[in-house]
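ingest -> validate -> predict -> emit
validate: passed (alphabet ok, no gaps, 349 aa)
predict: started
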Amino acid sequence: MKINHDQLMGHLNQQFKPVYIVSGDEPLLVQEACDAIRAKARAEGCVERHVWEVATGFDWQTWLASGRNQSLFSDRQLIELRMPTGKPGDAGNKAMQAYAQDVNPDNVLLIVTGKLDGSSQNSRWMKALSAVGMWVTVWPLTLAQMPRWVQQRMSQRGMTASTQAIALLVERVEGNPLAAMQEIEKLYLLFGEGNVSDEAVQDAVVDSARFDIYTLVDNALEGDVQRVIRIFSRLEEEGVEPILLLWALTREIRGLAQMASALAQGERMDSVLSKFRVWDKRKVLIKKALSRSGSTDWQALIVRSAAIDRTLKGGPGHRWDELLGLTLQLAGRPILIDQKNTRDNQIWM
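emit:
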């Protein structure tokens, strides 16, 4: 059976299938659909979760045997199969057909894949699994749908805004749901719950247009130290909120720490980038950053981020010097800062 992602919550409130296939090329909406299915699985008693990444040489027979088996501890299992291309090959086609013919009622299978082309939609594995489960298709939001979507996401945060303010935000993000969520998170950090005035939204959007924090982060990933310093200085001069800069840096560092940990455990780079849903246009940047530092280094940056958070909340230290140091460490050029001197006396490593 097939439904759209906006019909998923209504479906889950009424029933729960043993198989779910979530496909689409809108990362945020795919993630939300999968999170809803995972939450329902936990509520239905799926205590264990096993994640499988389909890549070259994937052992389909081992996966099939695992999916058919009962948990050693008699708990229901959520079996998550991540297949970015939607092309399982002949072995995968046969294994998934076999799974559909003998579904273990104690387990729930969640297949996460990119947008499926015509041949994949009409494949034997797809027909077999959708016959016993649910196929959730995720389509990009249209510009006409975006205002209502933004309003719903703001409401989930306890926020409200006028129709005019929401339209301005939608125009700024050009219909990109992930960018819209980032703007909503920024507004929440600045103003918290309640009504956000038109002026507040306009000021925040204008700041984003003129002083792009995300451009700073991308240049840090690139390792372009000189450009990082120029952008950082401009952000400081124009009075961007330090908490927003720290949020953007910490968000990136946490993701890199998780990816570095996965690489340290033997996972392949392509598999890790797919697992963490890194956009194609950012893959080169992420690879550069990961090649410069290991898991321990990224964990140390998380610790430093926490210390800077305390500084921003009134603790000791110069907040802009600390933020510059963190940004340069992200760029692969750590500095030692003498707290008694000015920034001109920093010691470059």
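The two ends are 59 Å apart (CA to CA).
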